[in-house]
UniProtKB/TrEMBL annotation:
Residues 114-170 form the D-isomer specific 2-hydroxyacid dehydrogenase NAD-binding domain. One of its GO terms (molecular function) is NAD binding. PROSITE patterns: D_2_HYDROXYACID_DH_1 (PS00065). The keyword NAD applies. Residues 20-97 form the D-isomer specific 2-hydroxyacid dehydrogenase catalytic domain. SUPFAM superfamilies: Formate/glycerate dehydrogenase catalytic domain-like, NAD(P)-binding Rossmann-fold domains. Keywords: NAD, Oxidoreductase. This is D-3-phosphoglycerate dehydrogenase. The keyword Membrane does not apply. Pfam families: 2-Hacid_dh, 2-Hacid_dh_C. Belongs to the D-isomer specific 2-hydroxyacid dehydrogenase family. It comes from Acetivibrio straminisolvens JCM 21531.
Amino acid sequence: MYTIQTLNKISLKGLELFPRDSYEIATEISNPDAILVRSFDMLNMEFPKNLKAIARAGAGVNNIPVEKCTEKGIVVFNTPGANANAVKELVLASLFMSSRKVYKGISWAQSLKGKGDEVAGLVEKGKSQFAGPEIKGKKLGVIGLGAIGVMVANDAVSLGMEVIGYDPFISIDLPGSFPAPLKKQ
């Protein structure tokens, strides 16, 4: 049986992928075979001799001493793109909120509390100040066409936006999931 120590709260959905007859997973394991980590700072940790792998549940490994692990033969890997959809949704929500003045509208609506019978008239008179422009037909520049950038670009195209993408590490000639030709700048 392999033992896995978790240093942060890890999604049960992910942990359920490990069959319980082959893996023991807990936060308190003194000599684990592997460690699952999110943001816990491991840079000054001493590693048990039995440790074979460290998996970062997220992008990047800046909280793991990769060189030290390499010297000890400990494999380090991450899960880039695991939260890409959530980040993409936050980017799109930000586009909508800033374009359509959602935050200002919420604040204004809250200012109407206690105005009773006046509310209907105030809403009719004041609602137009929060209309904002539609994002359809607007240009969006996406810098970086990794997992998140491509998802943002694809969804923005689906929403009717013109997308201009830039990534110094990929070639425009490479096949990919980007639905429209990128414009060279």
